[in-house]
Amino acid sequence: MFEKILIANRGEIACRVIKTARKMGIKTVAIYSDADKQSLHVKMSDEAVHIGPPPANQSYIVIDKVMEAIRATGAQAVHPGYGFLSENAKFAEALSAKGVAFVGPPVNAIESMGDKITSKKIAQEAGVSTVPGYMGLIADADEAVKISNEIGYPVMIKASAGGGGKGMRIAWSDEEAREGFQSSKNEAANSFGDDRIFIEKFVTQPRHIEIQVLCDAHGNGIYLGERECSIQRRNQKVVEEAPSPFLDESTRRAMGEQAVALAKAVGYASAGTVEFIVDGNKNFYFLEMNTRLQVEHPVTELITGVDLVEQMIRIAGGEPLSINQNDVKLNGWAIENRLYAEDPYRGFLPSIGRLTRYRPPAEVAAGPLHDSGKWQGDAPAGNLAVRNDTGVFEGGEISMYYDPMIAKLCTWGPTRDAAIAAMRDALDGFEVEGIGHNLPFLSAVMDHPIFIAGTMTTAFIEEQYPEGFVGVELPTEDLRKIAAASAAMHRVAEIRRTRVSGRMDNHERKVGSDWVVTLQGEDFNVTVDADRDGATVRFDDGSDLRIASDWTPGDQLARLSVGDDSLMLKVGKISGGFRIRSRGADLKVHVRTQRQAELAKLMPEKVAPDTSKLLLCPMPGLVVKLEVEVGDEVQEGQSLCTIEAMKMENILRAERKGVVSAINAAAGDSLAVDEVIMEFE
Fold it and tell me: pTM higher than 0.90, yes or no?
């Protein structure tokens, strides 16, 4: 077995590989750019080598720099993670030439299956059903428009070397095909160093289901069930689960056997994923094969007990698989939520900055494993697992140069309902401050009836949140619980304030029992009767709720018992109350006396400034190009400029008709959030 492995990646996947290598007694080497000098993967590794400036095309995907790090440290093998060089055949060839093992498939498998165009041709030749499309190289935007018309809109424009949603666009018209082609080429060149593009029919209302395969160099191959990845945004997965709530055993077996046969046809040896589009009748179509470890691999590990990273390392070391198909048992259910540094209230645009608070929920094991990497029987019923794969830490910075993923939060349960319930609790207990993030949105998805029923498609987010995410409106019953909890916490805080030192002599502050709690536009008149064990909060309709908690003022996470239910709240202080976040809702909760509540109703509401004649930068980013000039008349929906952030290009469009009166930025400028780009008459 290898003594030292270099990890040609960064962030959470680098940390993930380090954990398994450490378990196997293998030393690790990290590489890092200027932006990652203080990153978690650098701190966790045994050695670390600096490889260049922040942009990936000047550091992480420069093969010569990675090869120099290998030479300097004497690493015997390289794990590429996902993205960057993970599906780069030239990198694998460079390693082979130096006698360094690539923890991934052979070069020919990368070339034939990692390239989306070639993989589809091979699948067609093997008799695998594929989505209609044009697999040849496309010269320019005019040809892209012509091909799109021949296939028929809508079409998917994709980077041949792409992955992770990069270099992908859906086009419904000639104009969108033209724009999408150029943006896809730019993103592909910047992210993968390969700007080849192909086009295929976009299948509406599909489910995205993928099969995890594991093959060795001795001709053995198995599949480890499937992952449901249908909840996506901008073609990037957000929520994954294993198994799929949609498949039956016969379809699972057919997809798995086909995936293994395809892998064996190209001499595959490592972990890989065969992705399918599945329609409502369970007809499945080969989409692509990812010749690397997938982002969402933890859910497969949780339901099978197989450490995929360990298996990849052993296969790269020449070992045969120690697991056969009969050994693979799907135990329970696992769900993964991707925590992204993006603001759901601003159209999910990237958010960068310092993590002033980062407190993930405690990890809980699902059950013991065999040395072979299999469960010792089924995990105990009711023993819910919580796993958090991350590459950040409190006080660290989220950079504009890389993917916006902060963490992958996973839960396991004996049933799907149990795994969902565990995920709700884990999300409620996940504390992130300092940047915009999608925790509220993830909480909303976990409570959405379509997700709960398991009937989602890849159009879920687009259809259910057509105007974007604006938060969650909680039902009255939930508001009552939060109101009662807030009243009880407010009383505790008030008592604390009466005991402050330095008070005036002969003056004692009394804490009342009657309060008006206002949240989400509703008022609750309550009376708080406290005792040593908690408080009883009575409402004016005669009902009451018993509150018990060890919360103290200043705690940002409150765990309470409210009536017969448990409640977890993220708590922040605002004037006259709290900022409460729970289950996707972000609430300003005011706790006032009766007189204060009466006076509050007389206060004028603050009116937001008028920005209707301004184009504001929605995220920190780089101006790629400007589409208009001063004096131009623009129409609703017209492209105004392109902003690049976190490896993605974002086209900003006019919301209404107008005339450009001023342009305050130029191509190449770095802009902050809400910086004015253009002004209109």
Answer: no
